[in-house]
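Postdoc handover notes: sequence design on the structure in folder B. Input tokens:
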């Protein structure tokens, strides 16, 4: 058996560089950074920021159909579950849906969308016409 004295792992470092490395007072990552001068006092480093100019208030927001979150939800639902809708259904974007909702009578595309949604809600295999 080998004694602990003859093991190469327990032998002392051979060169002077390795000796300096172990004897330095700085441990860990601090040995790579030099010492800096004293830090500035806290009172000098915290200067008062200049006062900001007061802006005029923005005008009140007028709500439109594009602010309606239901339109975004319908478009998101259609894109996520496109396999559930009939293939003959026209793909709608948010602006298409807004324009169709503003018309006095719904167009053919919006009517097909409403019928497809009704078929999904009623859980019917045959689409509502």
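Designed sequence:
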């Amino acid at each position: 058996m080998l004694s602990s004295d003859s093991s190469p792992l327990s032998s002392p470092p051979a060169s002077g560089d390795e000796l300096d490395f172990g004897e330095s007072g700085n441990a860990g990552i601090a040995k790579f950074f030099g010492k800096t001068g004293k830090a500035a006092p806290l009172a000098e480093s915290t200067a008062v920021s200049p006062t900001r100019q007061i802006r005029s208030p923005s005008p009140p927001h007028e709500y439109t159909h594009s602010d309606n979150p239901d339109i975004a939800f319908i478009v998101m639902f259609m894109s996520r579950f496109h396999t559930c809708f009939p293939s003959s259904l026209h793909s709608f974007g948010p602006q298409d849906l807004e324009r169709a909702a503003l018309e006095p009578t719904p167009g053919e595309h919006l009517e097909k969308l409403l019928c497809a949604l009704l078929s999904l809600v009623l859980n019917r295999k045959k689409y509502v016409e």
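Context for whoever picks this up: The first helix runs from residue 16 to 23. Don't rerun without checking with the PI first.
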